[in-house]
Amino acid sequence: MFQLSYGLYILLAKEGNKLNGCIVNTVVQQTDEPKQISVTVNKNNYTEEMIARTGRLNVSVLDETAGFGTIQQFGFQSGRKVDKFQQETEYDMAENGLPYIIKGCNAYLSAKVMDSIDLGTHTMFLAHVTDGAILSENPSMTYAFYHAHVKPQPPKKAGKGKQWVCKICGYIYDEEKESIPFRELPDDWVCPLCKHGKQDFEEK
Ligand code: FE
Questions:
Q1: Which among 121, 110, 128, 132 has a CA at the least distance from the CA of 48?
Q2: So what's the pLDDT on residue 159?
Q3: Structure confidence by residue, pLDDT tens digits, 154-182
Q4: Rounded-to-integer distance, Cα 51 and Cα 57, Å
């Protein structure tokens, strides 16, 4: 599965006055005539709930100029707790009334949900594309590009304590800097930045 390639996208929703979005790597074109896509998103994401209730979504295509800040803003915090659109977000509203992101994105699609499939941890939405636009010719960001060029690279290990690095966001757990140091990460360990579990950490 690690050899599969992915893009990176901001999945956007609007419910009432609430705007929200999250990062996904699972937007796939299914057919061109009619234009249909699938989007798979974790049920823990508030965006998933909003799309399930409203039946509408936008997809902003991240490009290679997007910084780690954009990934953090939409990916590493929950729309249940913060308003992701009050944090210097450059966005505009599409014809369907949902937001799309301008900065760091080269295109957007608007889509109407036709069907959804319960995949256990995730929901797959099958959606009909109703609108969209190209915003720039910057190359689209792939998941591989994110790992190689956007995610902070861990600095060289200095002390003797153990360190574990999050493979998703680059967060470093440094035993020597913690008030309650672990010799091993506990099984229920969760990355404080991106919320991924112990399985996504590796020891330096
Ligand atoms: Fe992380």
A1: 121
A2: 66
A3: 776 666 778 899 999 999 888 777 766 67
A4: 6
In the chain, % helix, strand, coil (3-state, to 5) comes to 15, 40, 45
Ligand 1 centroid – CA 16 distance (Å): 31
**CB count in 10 Å sphere of residue 180:** 5
25 alpha carbon to ligand 1 midpoint, in Å?
A: 16
Distance 60 CA to ligand 1 centre (A): 22
Q: Ligand 1: distance of its center to the CA of 204 in Å?
A: 15
Q: Is the dihedral of CA 201, 76, 93, 117 positive or negative?
A: positive
Q: Write down the pLDDT at residue 82.
A: 92
Position 89, amino acid? T
Tell me the pTM: 0.86
Count of alpha carbons within 13 Å of 191, Cβ hemisphere only?
Answer: 23
Question: How far is the centre of ligand 1, averaged over its atoms, from the C-alpha of 80 (Å)?
Answer: 19
Between the CA of 201 and the centroid of ligand 1 the distance, in Å, is: 8
